[in-house]
Amino acid sequence: MAGKTDRRVPDFISKGTFSWGGLDYHFAGGQDPEIRDFAMDDPWRVLLKSLARAKRGDFSELSHLEKVIVESKNTVATNIALELIGSAGTDAQLKFLRESILHGNEYLSVEACAAAVSAGCLSLIPAMLERWAFAKAFRDRETISLRLGILLEEWEGPITEMRLFHDDSDGSTTEEIATESVLSEGFTKKYVALVNNSMVELKSRCAASDSPVLLGNPFGVVKLAEYMASLLRSEIDFASLSAMFLVLRHRFDSSTGIDCSGFFLDRKFQPLMASSVLETFFESGEADKFEHGVRYFFGHRIPK
Predict the structure, then answer these.
(1) Distances 146 to 22, 116, 141 between C-alpha atoms, Å
(2) What's the N-to-C CA distance of the chain in angstroms?
(3) Segment 218-267, tens digit of pLDDT
(4) What is the C-alpha to C-alpha distance for residues 153 and 202, in angstroms, rounded to an integer?
(5) Are 43 and 81 in contact (CB under 8 A)?
(6) What's the Rg (C-alpha) of the chain?
(7) What is the structure's pLDDT at 203?
């Protein structure tokens, strides 16, 4: 993205729209902003129109987000466009996301890996891993490994933390993690093997090579809701639970369209509200319309 960066953002951003700890894909007051309030060439117009259509089950406008990502100098709009493609993109948009991971500039490729988490498709993981291996900066590898871990393993496992174990000559097992080793050729080969092995094992439990996954398991909206409810009944410390629900809420909210903004108040997690929303989801019969192993956006099955 050459040239001067455009940092202008609409007012609804400051109110929490597109924030995982805020309103996510919802808007303050419950009303989407009027598209006509934006200039024809404004990237926000394209983004809002694509979002509004997708919320109604019309995914035809999402292809226009690619132009926002390629041409816009507004990094906030670019990041949100990537995220929306991850959440609602069809196979055509996910192909664009994969190409952005593999061939985008350093900034774009890392942000595209973040968007791939919202898509959660197994078919995107090889591209993420290839970009991890290509990255020369420790920070980029650290960021991508976090995204890979969210898809391939439970919280804070060896993929997430770039933590490997090897056998010493005396037969003992030691842990290897350091900035220097993470960037070395030897560590790269070991980490790639670790991720590939995890991916193969997970793929064996999925219905298709492009199945959605989350936390090392095949994804389903109902299974996600059950998992979230079980976490709320657990004895996990509050800080960890808050961090977990930032990720889980986004996936649940975008899949169902259920407004989960009450999960966080001034960015502080509200477990009682989360429990109430999930309980209503099960008692209302809403859960019955979601098929396991399928991606949804606002309750609409995302077409291929």
Answers:
(1) 22, 12, 9
(2) 30
(3) 999 999 999 999 999 999 999 999 999 999 999 999 999 999 999 999 88
(4) 9
(5) yes
(6) 20
(7) 96
Q: What is the mean pLDDT of residues 283-293?
A: 96
Token pair 């903004």 is at which residue?
Answer: 261
- Segment 113-139, tens digit of pLDDT: 999 999 999 999 999 999 999 999 999
**Residue in the block written with tokens 């808007």:** 27
Q: Which of 275, 215, 280, 282 is nearest to 251 (CA)?
A: 215
Task: Give the span between the Cα atoms of 141 and 36, in whole angstroms.
Answer: 41
What pTM value is reported for the model? 0.92
CB atoms closer than 10 angstroms to residue 153: 20
pLDDT digits (tens, 9 = 90+) for 34-71: 998 899 889 999 999 999 999 999 999 999 999 999 99
The answer to whether residues 246 and 20 touch, using CB atoms and an 8 Å cutoff, is yes
94 and 123 Cβ atoms separated by less than 8 Å: yes
